[in-house]
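WARN  no MSA supplied for this record, continuing single-sequence
INFO  ligand: S-adenosyl-L-homocysteine
INFO  echoing inputs
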Amino acid sequence: MAAELILKEGREKSLLRRHPWIFSGAVAEVRGDTDKGGEIVIRDAKRRFLARGAFSPESQLAARVWTFQENEAVDASFFERRFQRAFELRKAVFGGTLPDACRLIHAESDGLPGVTVDLYGDYAVCQLSSAGAEFHRAELTAAVLRYAKGAYERSDLDSRIKEGLEPRTGPLGGEELPETIDFTENGVRFRMNPRTGHKTGFYLDQRCSRRAVAEAAAGARNVLNCFCYTGGFGLAAIHGGAEHVLNVDSSAAALELAQENAGLNGIPPERFETQEADVFQFLRQCRDRGKTFDLIVLDPPKFAETAARLPKAARAYKDINLLALKLLSPGGKLFTFSCSGAMEEPLFDKVIDSAACDADADFRITGRLSQGPDHPVAANFPESRYLKGIAGIKLGTL
Ligand code: SAH
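INFO  complex generated
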C-alpha cells in the first residue's frame, strides 16, 4: 500500500482549491514508507482522499501533487499524457505548430511540479528540480524523447539543494546535442548554447515582450538594452527599425554570443554595440554625461528570491527605473520588467510610480506585458505568474 500523508485539521483548504503544494507545517503525520520523491497519498485529517503526490522529506514543501484523481496511477503513461496535454496547449496557442524554440513543460502549470522542458529545434533542454521529478527521471526522459531527438539536463539549480538533491548536468537521453543550436524567434535568428547558457540557454519567456519592443522601436534613433544577455531585446529593436542599440550586461560570454547573434542577422557592428558593465553604475555614468535614449529596456535578473528580500529588491528596481526615466528623451519609451515572483504587480506599479515621481517624469503606462503563452499561468497556482512588464512613454512638455 502507498504511504500516506495526513494533514492537520483544516489544512486541506488549498488542496481543495487544487493548489499543488503541501507545506511541511500542514502535515500531521506520515504513515508507511516511501523513498525520497516516491508516491504518497495525501489525505485530510478525517482520512479523506485529496491527491496523489511526490514526497519530499527534506524540503519545506513536504509534497507536491501529481494528480487530484484517486484512481490515476503515476506511471509512464501518466507522464506521457501530461506531455501530450502540454503539447496540445502549445499547438492551440501557436496556431497549430510550435515555434522553433518553445517551452513544452512549465512545471506546475502543466501539472508536472519540478519539471521544465524547453525545445530548441530538434533538441530538448530539461530541468528536474524536485525530489518527485528526480524519482521519475526515467519516465520523464522517455516522455521528452517523444518530442526531441536528444535531451540535455541543466539541473544546476539551487532549488535542488532544498530538496536534498545534488545539482546535475549532462546528457539525459537520445542523441548528443550539438555545441550550439540556432533557432528563429519573431523573425530574428538566435544561437544558444545548451551546456553553458543561463537556465536552459535562452529566456524563452520574453517572446511576446520582444515582439512588443520590435513594434515600438520603429524610428527609435538609439536604444539602450540593459541586462541584455545574448541580445534578445536589442535584436528585436533593430528588426523593428531602430537605428542603433547599445547592449549592456555584466557577462562577457553573454555579450560575445549577442555579437554572434547580430552577425547571424546580418546587422552591421556599428548599429549593434555591446558593453560589459554593471547596469547600476552604467546608468549613473550616462546620467552624469547627460546621455539620452529613445527607448530603454530593463530586464534585470530576479532581485527578490523570497518575500523577505522584497524591501531591498524594491529599492534596486526603483533605482534602475528612476535612472532610466531620467535618461529617456521626451516621448521616449520604457520597457521595464520584474521576474521576481515574490514581487506582485501592485508593488511593481508602486515602484514605477515612485521612480517616475522622483525622476520628475510624466510617465504613461501604455501596455502590460507578461510571460509568453508557452509559460502558461495555472489558475489554481498563482505563483506561476512571475513575469511582469510595463511599457510606457515619458511625455514631453507642451
Ligand atoms: N533580457 C535578456 C535576459 C536577461 S537575464 C533576454 O531577453 O534574453 C539577466 C541578465 O542580467 C543576465 O545576462 C546577467 O548576466 C545580467 N546581469 C545581472 N546583474 C547585472 C548587473 N548588475 N549589471 C549588468 N548585467 C547584469
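The longest helix spans residues 76-93.
INFO  checksum written, moving to next record
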